[in-house]
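Standup notes
- DV: blocked on the single-chain target, sequence here:
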Amino acid sequence: MAVFGVLTKIAYQNGSAIWVSFITYFSGTLILIPFILKGGIESLKSNHYPYLIGRAVFGTAASFLYMLSLHYIPLVNATLLFNTAPIFIPFLAIYWIRAHISKTVWAAIALGFLGIIVIIRPTAEIFTQSGNLIALASGLSLAIAYFQIKLLAGSDPGARIIFYYLGIGALMQLPLLLFAGPLPALDSCLISVACGVVMVLAQFALVEAYLFADASQVGVYQYSSVVFVGLIDWLIWNQVPSKLDLLGVLLVMIAGTMIIYSGNMINKKK
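- DV (later): unblocked, structure below
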């Protein structure tokens, strides 16, 4: 997802958010067609259409709002607010499935978010600028989408979940092209296609992760994309991380270790 954010930022510089998003979703859908054709029409049948549609709607909203926020705020700030999703997930778990969230998971979520704050060092303006509010809305939408994936995991295969997500997402954005202006330059289109490829890979990894862990646990690892964005800034654009940045990375790594330990303890009790 960090690579997706970087590619999106580059593509967005030479094209509208609507075109970049649509090409991303459309190309991702085309990539998945061979997987669907192998199983025939039966591979599209499900007993959980509301979850499939809900995941598609909120997932598309999250991705589009994230792309839109990149026009107003820096990539790392947008990624931070996009990744506030784990903060919302435990509340969704409590509301939807009456889940019990352990104190260790709560502590890890707080520690991971603290690490991101140390990395970003946001000012008070982060909650008053329109771009920051858009990115925060993308985080909430993403949390709902992730929880829908958890409800689907184990009953619907990953290819089906992702195909519905990208296919419905592309259809949702099709009418918006009337307001998107002319088709962007070729390089922007090609980068948008690359975004589609990376998104498919990320979605497959995400769906597989939810087969083995709770939504609150997997969600914490979404923090790592902020760390990866910082590393990409360093490696490609020579943005050297400060000591505070390294401290933030360490906090996120500790949070991940706490979640792994918590998951092991849960398995042992079972």
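- Follow-up: The longest helix spans residues 243-269.
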